């Protein structure tokens, strides 16, 4: 089913609103005249972003402060974001952290923090939002997972497991919300030039800018897609990676 122009989202919550990708999603929708609620932990950065988004055309921009690793409070955060705009057409869960795999596999507290922030917290937040969208019988819950969730690899299996778990969670949530007409979008980016990847050598055809990813997210929301690889060629790459025979895969340094 294709969303009509009239149902382009007008009320949007961005969780992890200061993320490089969410910043570009907010700009895109502000320029289309949507109202926004920005949820994050850095109030000063959120205020700066809100000023910028009002100039770009957002009629209303609200701010909420949240520490997403505090999983006991995510239900309250969902309720506050919903109330800030009266209701929501689109919720985008965009926060996350990329742990150092070698360190996290020795330091279980660090591994636990990464698993909580990248899986437990966004899963519980999506669930808390789901009951409101389900009662409303419309809208989209979009969550940024990662291509890293598609197959466990020695170089990042803690982050990858969290994102893979989140993919399965969203699959089930999508199944649950289908009768209510609520879309659940799983966004799977490859390498994106944001603060998260600042420490990595960048450049080359596999790297994307966050505005490109934001445009892909908006298009997938309009088309009510279930899963979107961004840029698109990651869908092909991950089909190959997922299907590599194990003996070959184990010889790789992926
Ligand atoms: N960049 C990539 O190559 C890539 C690839 C695949 C998937 N992703 C996913 O895309 C999403 C967006 O990431 P990004 O690339 O835009 O990176 P980013 O710019 O580093 O954004 C990460 C955001 O998460 C927030 N955050 C981290 N821990 C938090 C906490 N405990 N409480 C509240 N907020 C917290 C950060 O807040 P502060 O601004 O306050 O630090 C930041 O705004 C993430 O889910 C990431 O895993 C990214």
Set down the secondary structure blueprint:
Layout: E1 11-15, H1 20-31, E2 35-40, H2 43-56, E3 61-65, H3 74-85, E4 90-93, H4 101-104, H5 108-136, E5 140-144, H6 157-177, E6 183-189, E7 191-192, E8 207-208, H7 210-222, E9 227-230, H8 233-243, H9 246-251
Parallel strand pairs: 1-2, 1-4, 2-3, 4-5, 5-6, 6-9, 7-8
Helix pairs in contact: 1-2, 1-7, 3-5, 5-6
The chain binds NADP nicotinamide-adenine-dinucleotide phosphate (NAP).
NADP nicotinamide-adenine-dinucleotide phosphate is lined by residues 16, 18-21, 40-42, 67-69, 94-97, 117, 144, 146, 189, 191-192, 194-197.
Major sheet characteristics: 7 strands, parallel
Which overall shape is indicated by the principal axes computed on the Cα atoms?
A: globular
Number of strands: 9
Report the uncertain regions. 1-6
Strand arrangement in the largest pleated sheet: 3-2-1-4-5-6-9
Each distinct ligand: NADP nicotinamide-adenine-dinucleotide phosphate
SSE pattern, N- to C-terminal: EHEHEHEHHEHEEEHEHH
Structural class based on helices, strands and sheet pairing = alpha/beta
Helix share bin: 40-55%
Overall mean pLDDT stands at: 96
**N-to-C span:** 37 Å
What would you report as the Rg, rounded to the nearest angstrom? 18 Å
| Number of continuous helical runs | 9
Content of β-strand? 15-25%
């Amino acid at each position: 089913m294709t969303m009509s122009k009239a149902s382009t989202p007008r009320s949007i919550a961005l969780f992890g609103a200061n993320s490089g990708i969410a910043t570009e999603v907010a700009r895109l929708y502000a320029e289309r005249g949507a109202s926004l609620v920005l949820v994050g932990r850095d109030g000063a950065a959120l205020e700066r972003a809100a000023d910028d988004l009002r100039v770009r055309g957002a009629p209303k921009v609200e701010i909420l402060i949240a520490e997403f690793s505090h999983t006991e409070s995510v239900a309250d955060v969902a309720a506050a974001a919903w109330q800030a705009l009266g209701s929501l057409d689109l919720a985008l869960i965009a926060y996350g952290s990329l742990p150092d795999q070698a360190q996290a596999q020795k330091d279980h507290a660090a591994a636990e923090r990464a698993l909580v922030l990248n899986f437990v917290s966004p899963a519980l937040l999506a669930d808390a939002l789901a009951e409101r969208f389900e009662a409303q019988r419309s809208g989209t819950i979009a969550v940024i997972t990662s291509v890293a969730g598609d197959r466990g690899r020695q170089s990042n299996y803690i982050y990858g497991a969290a994102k893979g778990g989140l993919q399965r969670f969203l699959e089930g949530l999508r199944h649950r919300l289908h009768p209510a007409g609520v879309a659940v979008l799983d966004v799977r980016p490859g390498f994106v030039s944001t603060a998260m990847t600042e420490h990595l050598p960048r450049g080359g055809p596999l790297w994307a800018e966050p505005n490109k990813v934001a445009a892909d997210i908006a298009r997938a929301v309009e088309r009510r897609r279930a899963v979107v690889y961004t840029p698109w060629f990651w869908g092909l790459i991950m089909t190959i990676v997922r299907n590599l025979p194990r003996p070959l895969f184990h010889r790789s340094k992926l």
